[in-house]
Amino acid sequence: MRCRLCRNTAVYEAERFCKEHFIKYYEKKVEKAVILSRIKSKKVLVTVSGGKDSSALALVLAKHKEEYKLDIELLYLHLGIGEYSNHGMEVCKKLAKQLDIKLNVLSLKDVYSKTIDDFKNEKICSSCGAIKRYLMNKFAFDNNFDFVATGHNLDDEAAFVMHNIFNRNVDQLSRTGMVTKTIRENKLIGRVKPLYYLTEKENMLYCILNNVNFYNEECKNASGNQQIKNKEILYKLADSRDKKLSIVKTIDKLKKNSEVKEWVPSYCPKCGFPTTKGICKFCRTIAG
Ligand code: SF4
Ligand code: ZN
Ligand code: ZN
User: Fold this and answer.
1) Tens digits of per-residue pLDDT, 166-193?
2) Ligand 1 cavity residues, CB under 6 Å
3) Nearest ligand 1 atom to alpha carbon 222
4) Does residue 121 contact residue 212 with C-beta atoms inside 8 Å?
């Protein structure tokens, strides 16, 4: 198959692009997400796991570092999930070296004397997710970052929307989107998702074509992960990029046309960070 723009050999068959035109297409999608102009001249913490999505994210932001005057650092959360966490950390160290960006490693064991392996409950992924979100925000707040960038992609977003529609969870649906505001006085650092319009497959190809290492290993707790189950449903119902995009864009449009209640946080009496009410989930989980 030939590239639809230059007739060289196509490496991305779904859109018929050669290597050069795929990379241009990919980077244009990141710019189209309007994220780069929103984070111009800002201090951005890029969370990395060693997987394809966050590695692609670190790479695309590193490539645009000069043009958008980005002050970027990487963060790896070492959660203590057996060898999986050690492998992830090693891949992130190599990535940081390759991109010449500072890597911060935060170990749950070192700071809170706990690991995810210590939690034996059935909802281990829910605890793990709450811990990750809390630590990302706290690290960014404590170190004066303006934004946290995550590797969430089109598949993640479309699966999240579908799951919440099936569960009539309107509050969660209102929290979708590619950017949230930073409200420093509320100890809340905004999140940006530069890969919002890119699929998992596209992120993987972007890493491969740019010779960036990533690892494909699955966490041993993945069978209980709701997000992975949501994606399995998504792939049955929305098998193309266009269908996933329609799901995400429909919700974005609905949100634009409706009044979204501003979340007014209360503060955790133990750690002082925002929570919906009472002691925050992080403090409850860590104490449990
Ligand atoms: Fe955490 Fe669950 Fe993901 Fe493993 S599968 S990293 S426990 S959220
Ligand atoms: Zn081409
Ligand atoms: Zn707390």
Assistant:
1) 888 888 887 788 888 899 999 999 999 9
2) 81, 116, 124-125, 128-129, 219, 221-222, 225
3) 5
4) no
